[in-house]
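Chain A, query sequence.
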Amino acid sequence: MADLLVKLYELPSAQPDIDALAAKGIVIRKPIGPENWGVIKWIKEHFSDGWASEAENAFFRDPKSIYIAVRETKNDDGSVTPAMLGFGCYDATVKGFFGPTGVAKEERGQGIGRAILLACLNAMKDEGYGYGIIGSAGPVDFYKKTCGATVIEGSAPGVYRGMYLG
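Chain A, predicted structure.
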């Protein structure tokens, strides 16, 4: 799969998407340190060890370069029980790259992936990047529609060439 290029200076805001999800009890946010192992475990269970490894790199950057989507259920005692729904990373493997990202199969189609994508890309813009790269992009049409991404010809396998996976 080819990489995609995104003009970060022409991005739509993530806030309308984040607000729409919040109205349904779904929160898009950066996780805090104690959530690390739970988030990584969830990524391994729903996606792969490789993606979990990349996400772990994003956890340990400063600032963190990972966003998660959680459904927050309020309990009778006023506490909140979160359930993981999805995640997205940037600067995880290579600076300037978005990904990996994923949403639980049963939660797709609600705009969670779009909100995570835009949150990550806007964070990259806020950190000073002018352009972002979506590495080995799967749903190319989704990225074209959501953030104006364009295919970088001849970019496969790109930075993932010759990886040792054990």
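The CA atoms of residues 3 and 135 lie 5 Å apart. Strands lie at 3-7, 26-29, 66-74, 80-90, 97-103, 131-134, 150-152.
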